[in-house]
Design a protein that fits this description.
GO molecular function, one term: metal ion binding
Keywords: ATP-binding, Calcium, Kinase, Lipoprotein, Metal-binding, Myristate, Nucleotide-binding, Phosphoprotein, Repeat, Serine/threonine-protein kinase, Transferase
EC number: 2.7.11.1
Number of strands: 13
Radius of gyration: 30 Å
Mean pLDDT: 77
Distance between the termini: 29 Å
CATH superfamily of the largest domain: Transferase(Phosphotransferase) domain 1
Strand order of the largest sheet: 1-2-3-5-4
Catalytic activity: L-threonyl-[protein] + ATP = O-phospho-L-threonyl-[protein] + ADP + H(+); L-seryl-[protein] + ATP = O-phospho-L-seryl-[protein] + ADP + H(+)
Strand content: 5-15%
Number of helices: 21
Family: Belongs to the protein kinase superfamily. Ser/Thr protein kinase family. CDPK subfamily. Belongs to the protein kinase superfamily. CAMK Ser/Thr protein kinase family. CaMK subfamily.
CATH architecture of the largest domain: Orthogonal Bundle
Length: about 550
């Protein structure tokens, strides 16, 4: 993405916890200095009456010295005149609206999420460049959404200045948007850098793991639980070979409340800890997620795979970590020891961030010999494949007959209460509730993100069908052929690079590197294009099978 792009937020996952009171000077409250007006006079103590003597004859009293007339009250200085600025009704951050464009110029788009867009941003006065995440307030529908936005800003400001955490520069709000200004991370995503380098070793993986766990350590030390650690949330500060890794997304983070048991199911499928799925967890979940990232860094695939999200969750709860498949026999015992300690299912027995940072493999014992190149290949496949598959499934859903989508159309119509042709988050939440769903707001948000292919914040009819249709129907031959024809615009029998690029850009899904990787991974006969058999193999191959390819 090229900038510090905070991905989509989900709401309730950010249920607020302990606030350390360190609001800093972010302006969450008006910090006006109030001065108590000084008194105009000082009351004199009254003299006690003497009741046993007659009152003395009145004596002439000295006339009071002429006093200068009391001047008319001077209008107070501005700070006294308006101790509190009235806030607009739709104010989120709790400070007056301010036009960010008076100080910064918003440039090219760096990334897009469900709630907003991240832009390259230049400070007008200095020419310094930053990343600016602009969130449309109309997409922050519920009170929880707004609280989450405020908390994300608060947490970023609270953690700013720590190693391996993106530097927070400020937050602005106007009538339409909230703008979060942060350090520009120009080095790209973690996996992109590894793949681009083309060579890799355990020692390099150990250095990356150290930086990731350093983020966990700082968060926990400062009373924050991250709750959504994954490779996409780490960017490199610059294109320099030794650039520092930076955590950029705190949308699901919360302040830790001592003694509180957290129950919201949050995070991303591959990286979620077993205790999250059991709805009883604490900060130990961050170590599990970091352990999953380390497993991927060493092998190219996550430790728990399945065809569906439910299958992944079942594997996380029941299966043991695989250290038998390639390349694990050639990975050092010290590395395997650390991974197994980080992926211990019992959170009480799981290694802590301090213990990870003290582990011999992290402190220099990791060997420098190259890791098998197949690991890089799998990492590329894991990162790129889902985009093409998701787009192809959407194409297939568009061609399904009324019979094949029986019932789904009625469900969509019932959920789309304003008849706009698209389901908003609030409509999805209330529709699921009417169907008897017990999903938390966090889970509804995750459903929303998964179904919203084009990332515009709503689910259109075809996206809804794609998300709810049984996969076995979507992968039948006639449907696969229709999808293939969609990409094969010139009916040549092949999907060329240009055709793939055109189709993916139509949905805002494809950048140059991703398209190149998809071609190279799907094109098994290496002729630079994708034929029908290769396309079908890609669509039918589940993640479980992909994990066993190497």
């Amino acid at each position: 993405m090229g900038g510090c792009f905070s991905k989509n937020k989900y709401t309730t996952p950010d249920a607020n916890g302990y606030r350390s009171g360190r609001t800093g000077d972010t302006g969450y409250q008006s910090h006006q200095n109030y001065q108590k007006p000084s008194s105009q006079y000082t009351p004199q103590p009254s003299q006690p009456e003497r009741h046993h003597q007659p009152p003395p004859m009145p004596r002439p009293q000295p006339q009071p010295r002429p006093q200068a007339p009391i001047p008319a009250p001077v209008k107070p200085a501005p700070q006294h005149h308006s101790p509190v600025q009235r806030l607009e009704p739709n104010n989120i951050l709790g400070k007056p609206f301010e036009d960010i464009r008076s100080k910064y110029k918003l440039g090219k788009e760096l990334g897009k999420g469900q709630f907003g867009v991240t832009y390259l941003c230049t400070e007008i006065a200095t020419g310094h460049t930053y990343a600016c995440k602009s969130i449309l307030k109309r997409k922050l529908v519920s009170k929880n959404d707004k609280d989450d936005m405020k908390r994300e800003v608060h947490i970023m400001q609270h953690l700013s200045g720590q190693l391996n955490i993106v530097e927070f520069k400020g937050a602005y709000e106007d009538r339409q948007s909230v703008h979060v200004l942060m350090e520009l991370c120009a080095g790209g995503e973690l996996f992109d850098r590894i793949i681009a380098q083309g060579h890799y070793s355990e020692r390099a993986a150990a250095d990356l793991c150290r930086q990731i766990v350093n983020v966990v350590h700082h968060c926990h030390f400062m009373g924050v639980m991250h709750r959504d650690l994954k490779p996409e949330n780490f960017l490199l500060a610059s294109k320099d070979e030794k650039a520092m890794l930076k955590a950029t997304d705190f949308g699901l983070s919360v302040f830790i409340e001592e003694g509180k048991v957290y129950r919201d199911v949050v995070g991303s499928a591959y990286y979620v800890a077993p205790e999250v799925l059991r709805r009883s967890y604490g900060k130990e979940i961050d170590i599990w997620s970091a352990g999953v990232i380390l497993y991927i860094l060493l092998s190219g695939v996550p430790p728990f795979w399945a065809e569906t999200e439910k299958g992944i969750f079942d594997a996380i709860l029941k299966e043991e970590v695989d250290f038998e498949s390639q390349p694990w026999p050639s990975i050092s015992n010290s590395a395997k020891d650390l991974v197994s300690r980080m992926l211990t299912k019992d959170p009480k027995k799981r290694i802590t961030s301090v213990q990870v940072l003290e582990h011999p493999w992290i402190k220099g014992q990791a060997p420098d010999k190259p890791i098998d190149s197949a690991v890089l290949s799998r990492m590329k496949q894991f990162r790129a494949m889902n985009k093409l598959k998701k787009l192809a499934l959407k194409v297939i859903a568009q061609s399904l007959s009324e019979e094949e989508i029986k019932g789904l159309k009625a469900t969509f119509t019932n959920m789309d209460t304003d008849k706009s042709g698209a389901i908003t988050y609030e409509e999805l939440k209330s529709g699921l509730a009417r169907l008897g769903s017990k999903l938390s707001e966090a889970e509804v948000k995750q459903l929303m993100e998964a179904a919203d292919v084009d990332g515009n914040g709503t689910i259109d009819y075809i996206e809804f069908i794609t998300a709810t249709m049984h996969r076995h129907k979507l992968e039948r031959d006639e449907h696969l052929y229709k999808a293939f024809q969609y990409f094969d615009k010139d009916n040549s029998g092949y999907i060329t690079r240009d055709e793939l690029e055109s189709a993916m850009k139509e949905y805002g899904m494809g950048d140059e590197a991703t398209i190149k990787e998809i071609i190279s991974e799907v094109d098994t006969d290496n002729d630079g294009r994708i034929n029908y058999d290769e396309f079908c193999e890609m669509m039918r191959s589940g993640t479980t099978q992909q994990a066993k390819l190497f």
